[in-house]
Protein 1
Amino acid sequence: MNHGASSSHRLKSPQSGSACTDPTCCGLITAHHGVEVEVVFTTGKRRMVRVKRSSGHVVGDDVEVAGEMLRRLPRRTELRRRDGGGGIHLVAANLDVLGIVVALNSSPGFIDRAIVAARVAQLQPFVVVNKCDLDDTAALLADLHRIYADSLPVFAISAMDRTGLAPLQAFLNQGHRGVFVGSSGVGKSSLLNALCPEINLKVGKVSDHNGLGRHTTTVSTLHPLSGGGELVDTPGFRDFGLVDILAEELAIHFPGFEEHGEVSCRFRNCRHRTEPGCAITKLVESGQIPADRYAVYLKLLGEVEADQSEARSKGWKN
């Protein structure tokens, strides 16, 4: 899936098997402005098409355009998130990687929620530790390497100083289409500016009051990388709630548990809490899985079970 030099600025064409054969009407949504979207056609031409705010179209969607009619083609993947108010938002479509950007002021639990959401959505997660030019970040980086390095890629960078970017660029240049998520203030816009200098995103200052950055992006856009691959820039958000995640999926995808794949629980749908014959709880007792990581898992498990219970209750009422 690598891009050659000749295609470094060319956006991915609609996926094979999409049943779109006319290059004059087949395209890709590269920007969403609320009531209209920008479509880049396979011919290279661009056009704005009006849509309803509730149309459900997102950046990354492959589409067919006929006049003012927009037809969405089947998606390979989609990434959704739940905000602090319980609302569900579709972030982007047809992604294959999810970059989780963190810094000293990141929200607790954000990384694990995002990793599980990515894996359930069939995306490869990776962690980007930004602001590594700050001395205080060294301890954070060491801790994140301890927790996640055996589970997924971890990149240490300073977007402001443009240091440590080469390994991250090489990873993205493998033809990936990805998106960065992260609490406000971690430097997502600075990172995108470093990777895509031509887009020149506005960088918000961190608030002295609460340590959080101001949201600087209001329009979702897709950008090609010079060496291959694409990045979607989305409006910033301060949380990443799990959406429609089953307890059994959390038990499978929680980072750190997969390292012990050679052991198995007695029950296939084990939630790793009090079930007899649970391999995970035995590993916790023996110290092979740290107690603090198991505590994080149990907290997320409680959230997921509460969501499932609420969903069932709403279903019964309907």
Protein 2
Amino acid sequence: MQNFSNTKIAVIGSTMMDLTVYADILPAAGETRFGESFTTGFGGKGANQAVMAARTGAKVTMITGIGNDGFGSESLVNFKNCGMDTTSVLQLPTHTGVAHIWVDGQGQNRISIVPGANFALTPQNAIDEVSKLKAVSVLIAQCEIPQEVTLAAFRTAQELGITTILNPAPYQPLTDDLLELTDWLIPNEIEFAELDKTHRAPDSDAVIASLRKTGRMIVTLGSDGAALVTADGSVKRFAAKKVTATDTTGAGDCFIGAFAAALASGASEESAVQFGIDCATKSVTRKGAQSSYPKIEEIDFSLIAK
């Protein structure tokens, strides 16, 4: 079976424990409703992206903070079970991050996060851990850790010749310094509108192409797939297979982890995008974030073109 066993990437970002309620109808303010079921699961945008990348067979180093609690211990075991390098998982004197997730009958979610150890990471932590990376070609980050930590990580990665991917989620204003150090910016539709100075939705190729003047960009479009801004500034759209969504939690992270692993393996950017969409489409047919991601035997490596 083809896989990315010779590919090495790193992720700096969040680790969370997801506490998820499923209900046909979510309660309004001041209202109480019965839910259908409740689960706990491993999450955090950074951890999700790292786990999906590891599912492809890539060798993944996770740079993250966990707490000195049960959730932290369980998260560390999960990383090891996924075959990831955990030497840069830092146990810090606080609680592990948690995400409270509500999923409605249409599979749409609402999420509230309490960062905990994710916000205890420091820029020096980032410099120290990224500096240790050997033969890593891609570094992924998000916005669930302090932005100055990501900035320090990307600055160090640039010095080492490592390609940087930023998923600006959850949205926050980004500094020009961070954007200049970002090789690939991958927002979803909501984040795109926040990044655009006039808050336009990515509903035309002209709008999508106008957002970024330097670096590369992909906009993920949910069930409509994704749009890639090509090297010449044009926009190429990629469709997603139509499926019935059970739970969209973590689908964007699934795309990014799979895309990054494919890109680092030497795949063409177009096939890496299609590969990411295929993995994410499989994930929305199952409940949870990491628990929904396709295993290596379910992944379609025939989509990859070098």
